[in-house]
Specification:
Blueprint (H helix, E strand, L loop, with lengths): L6 H10 L1 H7 L5 H8 L3 H5 L1 H23 L2 H19 L4 H15 L1 H13 L2 H32 L2 H22 L14 H13 L1 H31 L4 H25 L5 H8 L2 H15 L4 H27 L6 H25 L6 H23 L17
Helix pairs in contact: 1-8, 1-9, 1-10, 2-9, 5-6, 5-7, 5-8, 5-17, 6-7, 6-10, 8-9, 8-17, 9-13, 9-16, 12-16, 12-17, 12-18, 13-16, 14-16, 15-16, 15-18
């Protein structure tokens, strides 16, 4: 097994970073955007769930397109749409314009996540897929460390608009890299006809397949708590606890580091355990962390240190949950890898839209709304993980798909 990451997986990591960069980089600028554009705090917060909704819708489109036309053409089209939306965000003059352009940005940006998961399924068996997804979780963890720091720095030297100009430059770099370096991986034997009725039937069949649905819901509710944290943490940490934009970025980065460490641990475990066995050992962490946060929220004004412990535990646990639920969801979907990947992402971001909106409308002067939403998400994540593991037919074992180890 090679000790380095293959080039194709590095490129998928870069494409996967579009989501967290777009979500996390502008979080330290929430208050600055509200001041500059004259919007209420809740209105600016709602630009985040609007972005998540766009990611959900976009992925449902790109999945069937990638199964029909291959992985590269939809990827290039999505990146171009993302670039247009990002430039629109940078030029927005009010919160309504920013919200609309964030939707366009998301409709393009979701393509990277769909294609990345589909390419992994094209090339690897379930156990190796879980290891590769753990590598992508490193990106999902590293990007939130760097993104708020870059965003906070840009607020010092430029303005919040510079954040979106940076994202536009990143999109241009991705377009160039995909054009030059990415090869097609979709099996020609798995080409799916592109008909609206057929697409709808494919999604309906996938949703009726418990082998896909249970891991999708387990992962989605875990990520739902994460998106509530992303949307609500600027107000809780900067507004209630008085952290500066740079201090907030450091705290956010610390939690992202926990995600990276957990993903590394997950990859180590997967050398000798299957994804279901790892999940069985770790499914209790999101519910317990959520209950801790709820107790702190009921306390009223919890100490910052205890609050950070609860948030760190919850966010870190997703490095152990998400790669394994994702691999289990994709294991039996070789013919519909694009559609299954799209559904996996769409459900997660749909749940994230709901939790993000709930946080933005719960304009309480306490941590309780955020804590309650994370707690509910963690409990549902644990319930669906347990239900998944009780269905022994869902246990993922290596199959006969060609394997190219990710490390």
């Amino acid at each position: 097994m090679r000790r380095h990451f293959p080039g194709w997986l590095v490129l998928l990591g870069v494409l996967t970073a579009i989501g967290p960069l777009s979500i996390d980089m502008y979080l330290p600028a929430f208050l600055a955007i509200a001041d500059d554009l004259g919007g209420a705090r809740g209105a600016v917060e709602r630009t985040l769930p609007m972005f998540l909704a766009g990611l959900a819708l976009g992925q449902l489109v790109y999945g069937p397109l990638s199964d029909r036309f291959g992985r590269r053409p939809p990827l290039l089209a999505g990146l171009a749409i993302y670039l247009v939306g990002t430039v629109g965000c940078a030029l927005s003059t009010d919160v309504d314009q920013l919200t609309a352009w964030r939707l366009v940005q998301a409709l393009g940006g979701g393509v990277g996540m769909v294609v990345s998961r589909a390419v992994i399924r094209d090339r690897l068996d379930p156990r190796a897929s879980a290891q590769a997804l753990s590598v992508l979780m490193l990106v999902m963890g590293a990007a939130p460390i760097l993104a708020p720091l870059v965003g906070g720095w840009m607020l010092e030297v430029a303005s919040w608009r510079g954040i979106f100009w940076f994202q536009a430059a990143f999109a241009v770099g991705c377009l160039v890299a995909v054009t030059i370096a990415m090869r097609e991986t979709r099996d020609p034997a798995h080409v799916r006809p592109l008909r609206m009725g057929g697409v709808a039937r494919t999604y309906a069949r996938l949703l009726a397949d418990s082998r896909l649905l249970f891991p999708v819901l387990a992962g989605a509710f875990g990520m739902g708590g994460m998106f509530a944290y992303i949307g609500g943490s600027p107000f809780v940490l900067m507004g209630l606890h008085g952290l500066s934009e740079q201090q907030y970025a450091m705290v956010f980065g610390l939690n992202a580091f926990g995600l990276i460490a957990a993903a590394q641990l997950n990859g180590w475990w997967l050398r000798r355990l299957c994804p279901a066995e790892v999940l069985a050992r770790t499914l209790w962490i999101p519910p317990v962390a959520g209950l801790l946060l709820l107790l702190l929220g009921l306390y009223g004004s919890p100490p910052l240190a205890l609050l950070m412990v609860g948030l760190f535990a919850y966010v870190s646990s997703l490095g152990l949950i998400s790669p394994n639920t994702g691999a289990m969801a994709m294991a039996d979907q070789g013919r519909d890898a694009g559609a299954a990947s799209a559904l996996l992402g769409a459900v997660s971001f749909a749940v994230g839209t709901v939790t993000g909106l709930a946080v933005s409308f719960g304009e309480s002067e306490s941590v309780l709304p955020l804590a309650a939403i994370i707690c509910g998400s963690g409990l549902l994540c644990g319930v669906f993980c347990l239900s998944l593991l009780r269905r022994r037919s869902l246990r993922v074992e290596p199959d006969t798909v060609a394997v190219e180890p990710p490390t």
